[in-house]
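hey so i finally got around to running the thing on that chain from the lab meeting. sorry it took forever, my laptop kept dying and i had to restart like 3 times. anyway pasting the input first so we r on the same page abt which one it is
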Amino acid sequence: MTIESEHTLATPANDSIKESLAVETLHLAKLISDQAPYDGTFSQRIPGLSVSRYSRANKNDVKSFDLPSMLIVAQGAKTVTVGQEIYRFNQSQILMLPIALPIALKVTQASHFEPYLSMKLVLDPQKIAELALRVYPHGVPAITKWSANYVLSADLGMINAASRLVECLTKTGDAELLGPLVMDEILIRVLRSPIGSRIAELGFAGSKAHLVTRAVTWLRNNFSHQMKVAELAEMVHMSESTFRVHFKSITSLSPLQYQKALRLHEARRLMVSESMDATTACNLVGYASPSQFNRDYSRFFGSPPKRDVVGITSTSD
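ok and heres what got predicted. didnt touch it at all, straight out
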């Protein structure tokens, strides 16, 4: 299932607003380009902020495990796949990942002369909860539909705030003193958007989204352990059937699919970063059967473990 932009932070009312948005987006692209002088992703001095540049489109999906984050595209285009859903987003659009998820990314529009340029902010649930209390002092509106991600068309205020955040990196002291304030502004703008209540739910204890987030945190910390869905549901005080429904609606995956993705990503990290053999990695992440591990790994990453790791290491050399 392919999903285009479903929500907008604001719809430009006339050509002058569209033109201003285009100009501000070009300004943001220039600022990102200055901080990402060659292809790759670059962490910045402002905690949680990184910028990326890629000068060619990907032939294949790149598997990743992303923390809760928002990605703002200044130039080019990308797709992200979560479960069976494919989200497309491009210039002046924002991808929201409200929960830690295994995803597949692909740059679909990029060239040497017009590279793909984006910035990413890692979302802090505690900060979201703090700001949500100010944005929704009388409580968060009821949620009628959940999704694992959202693609939003940004308004001028959002792109302007993003530009000011990256500009903080260019002036002595601004990153430390003004950067956190601009990040708060960006989060407040998201919380005031049409999807704001869904993002706010992640920070409120007792909400279905918060309870699923607790389950996800447990899975991330204990992915090598044997897990029964009924026990996980009991841990967050839900019936098993209710838990399965909410977990799938928020992550696009079943609990078992989520655990499998965690195990496979960690096995890949162990083999690439620590030169571990596939059998040892398989055991450490909780697989009892090496043959089942090889089948799952090949299906998930597209190549058997050894061939996949050789491909990754040769590309990075």
